[in-house]
Amino acid sequence: MTTDIHGAPAASSEPAGLGVAVVGGGYWGPNLVRNFQASESFELRWMCDLRIERAQRALGRYSTVTATDDYARVLADPQVAAVAIATPAATHRDLALAALRAGKHVLVEKPLAAGYAEGRELVEAAEERGLILMCDHTYCYTPAVTYIRDLIASGELGDLHFLDSVRINLGLVQPDVDVLWDLAPHDLSILDFILPPGMAPLSVAAHGADPIGAGRACVGYLTLNLTGGAIAHFHVNWLSPSKVRTTMIGGSKRTLLWDDLNPTQRIAVFDRGVDLTPPAQLSEQTRREMQISYRSGDMVAPALAEREALRTMVEAFATAINTGTPPPTDGRAGLRVVDILESASRSLELDGAPVALQGTKGTSS
Ligand SMILES: NC(=O)c1ccc[n+]([C@@H]2O[C@H](COP(=O)([O-])OP(=O)(O)OC[C@H]3O[C@@H](n4cnc5c(N)ncnc54)[C@H](O)[C@@H]3O)[C@@H](O)[C@H]2O)c1
């Protein structure tokens, strides 16, 4: 792309793709820049950061894309069809709302917003205008998570009984959010993505600790009750000296173990478990006569493609804009995750008492 003498991107007669701007050139924004630039569906026109040197650095020395610290100029560009926001969560609502009001499609980094009411405002603003609002729930675009969702949908695991997830490492202690808001969006968005229709979280109980005196929870545990009696548990931790990324999903037929740090065998599906054969009449006495049997069948490790999730996510954003259909992780999916996070924060204040979710599942656009 060329720039005019005022530093604005010059209008080209034939746009190379959907004009897009990235806002926020800190840790994550440069990954969006790289993937939008690699995509033939988009033409990156602006990189915006309040600290212009970050915008310039995200683009690199030889880029002809325009760096700016003036968001209004980005929104005023009629060739910008979409804006991708990679700034801290507290700024998501204002930046996304301004873009939607300017008629732009919006991609927002996780979490969608800093609270449920703000998130709902964004969902409504997008729906009123017929614009795409997408949340970058990156993991949902990995081959592993897509495989897990398809396996559950096919009935291979049977009825879901439990999900147990660990996401711990020596993490950056964030200045603005606790470990639940920083790391749990990944796991909660995965849960939202893989659950079959008709199954949803109902309530959340959260426990947290701040053993280093950071002023916010650095270690967190979430327990979610799901419809049908299933349970999901998440452990997130910034203080773990070793990195662990595992999720176990137990079903009535099979159990799946996903170890994201094991590229040669990310997923293993075990035909192993416990079966219970109750007598025809279940009373306190016959309960003792129940037959417990242990299955110890095969373990299958499927071959998974290795593909950068952000690349797939960026293409899903383009498809949503071009077809006018909601992307897999639309604003409502983002809102369901924020619903759980906000309820978890309330539960933390209540010393871990379960808090019912405001409930948005089933109203997906
Ligand atoms: N999808 C993922 O896997 C993933 C990974 C990391 C972070 N994130 C998300 O990305 C977002 C950004 O996180 P980060 O770690 O890059 O933060 P960061 O603090 O490193 O960078 C944020 C940048 O935004 C800029 N900024 C702040 N307010 C702005 C405004 N009003 N206009 C323009 N620029 C502004 C800051 O100057 C900074 O450069 C967060 O929502 C975070 O949760 C997502």
Automatic annotation (TrEMBL):
Q: Which residues form the Gfo/Idh/MocA-like oxidoreductase N-terminal domain?
A: 19-137
Query: What Gene Ontology molecular function terms does this protein carry?
Result: nucleotide binding
Instruction: Outline the extent of the GFO/IDH/MocA-like oxidoreductase domain.
Output: 147-255
Spell out the protein name for this chain: Gfo/Idh/MocA family oxidoreductase
**Whose protein is this, by species?**
Actinospica durhamensis
